[in-house]
Design brief:
alpha/beta; Rossmann fold; four-stranded parallel sheet; 4 helices; 4 strands
Amino acid sequence: MTIAVDFDGTIVENKYPQIGELQSGAKDTLQRLHEDGHKIILWTCRTGDLLVEAVNFLLWHSIPFDQVNDNLRENIEQYGGNSRKVYADVYIDDRCLLWSNGIDWERVHYHFFGKPIYPEFP
């Protein structure tokens, strides 16, 4: 599955143009999705130096991604071109998956894996 993930307000708290704190559960969920073979596209409005800062943040925190604001090579080959619209099976964005005061990575993780990120210990 190809998953496009927004940066500001989704992976990190929305402090644009600064980079906010890492959202609880984002790193663990994205790492698990990637380990399970899913492709991750960083899907953000950031450009130039602000985009470089976001990419470096992901690299520093070991948050995996396969592409940045672009389609995967296999999709370009399959469809015979590269449209400016990023193709994904799932889009994770604070503007579309909202619970209470924003994105809830615990619920996103539960959606994909059917169990919580951090199971409570007895």
